[in-house]
Amino acid sequence: NAGVTQTPKFQVLKTGQSMTLQCAQDMNHNSMYWYRQDPGMGLRLIYYSASEGTTDKGEVPNGYNVSRLNKREFSLRLESAAPSQTSVYFCASRQANQPQHFGDGTRLSIL
Amino acid sequence: QKEVEQNSGPLSVPEGAIASLNCTYSDRGSQSFFWYRQYSGKSPELIMFIYSNGDKEDGRFTAQLNKASQYVSLLIRDSQPSDSATYLCAVMMDSSYKLIFGSGTRLLVRP
């Protein structure tokens, strides 16, 4: 059981570069989420997709875009990376009335 | 005021003791409450979830919810060094699919 798979696991970017973080789940879940986690902080929601074909902003959407490509895949794009976006990014998915399942995370550094 | 508050710790307890972790939340309409454990460099892992007032037990873990006082707690009995981690409280505040996380409490269990 793969669960929630995130790629890449690590990435270093230069300021101004663009990047897409990939997330795929094999649990047939309707809802998917992108979070970021900074040192000493909890997870902050960037964007979420309640169901295929819908996306909504979370707490910290500025500087990001998302695409719910199909039921399995939910990607996060940084159009012009900034050092403030250095963080660990987690993707999660859930089915109605069930807890969220998290991927292993992508560690992103922007120089 | 943060929506979900946790003491950052560290909370240090001796092996075999009871560890008590607390979380308060601001929205009285919150419906679902989750405790995640996160080891350093790893993704959050679900420990417990609770929807109704009272206690819910699972092995060495007990989640307690008091909606009138707007707090949720996690008790870990017979604490082990392997329980040393950061514990994240998460609250689903309405019928949306979004979770709001606290910043986490770091637990250290001394051998």
Describe this structure in words.
The complex is a heterodimer of chains A (111) and B (111). Chain A has 111 residues and is mainly β. Helix content of chain A is 0%, strand content 50%. Chain A has no helices and 11 strands. Chain A is globular and about 40 Å long. Chain B has 111 residues and is an all-beta fold. In chain B, strands 2, 4, 5, 9, 10 and 11 form a 6-stranded mixed beta sheet that branches. Chain B has a 5-stranded antiparallel beta sheet with strand order 1-3-8-7-6, with no helix packed on it.
- Biggest chain pair contact, residues each? A-B, 22 and 21 residues
Please tally the β strands of chain A and state the result. 11
Can you give the mean pLDDT of chain B?
Answer: 92
Largest sheet of chain B: 6 strands, mixed
User: What share of the residues of chain A lie within helices?
Assistant: under 10%
Please state the structural category of chain B: mainly beta
Oligomer: heterodimer
| Low-confidence parts of chain A | none
Low-confidence stretches of chain B: none
Query: Class by helix and strand content of chain A?
Result: mainly beta
* Strand portion of chain A: over 45%
Q: Number of helical runs of chain B?
A: 0
| Percent of residues in beta strands of chain B | over 45%
Q: What order do the helices and strands of chain A follow?
A: EEEEEEEEEEE
Report the end-to-end length of chain B measured between terminal Cα atoms: 37 Å
> Shape of chain A from CA axes?
globular
Helix and strand succession of chain B?
EEEEEEEEEEE
pLDDT average of chain A, as an integer?
93
Q: Using the alpha-carbon principal axes, give the shape of chain B.
A: globular
Number of DSSP-assigned strands of chain B: 11
Distance between the termini of chain A: 35 Å
